[in-house]
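Possible regression after last week's pipeline update?

I re-ran a chain I had predicted before the update to compare outputs. Posting the input and the new output here so someone can diff against the archived version. Not blocking, just want to make sure nothing changed silently.
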Amino acid sequence: MYLSADEPSRPLRDVPDSVGLLLLVGGNGHVTGRAASPSARLADLDRWTQDLFPEARLVHEWSAQD
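New output (post-update):
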């Protein structure tokens, strides 16, 4: 598992899948139930991921809190 150095921080890890590896990207300062626009937080996380990993393809998306 890796943690980005920028703010908000974003944890990254690879996850084995039946066809190879998936990239799991989380964080983005999203605290469940406290964001004015949870969808804007997810869109920002999607943009950040595409900027750094242009080959990445979104296959799942959810919001939760550990």
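Follow-up from reviewer: compared with the archived run. The two ends are 15 Å apart (CA to CA). Marking as no regression found.
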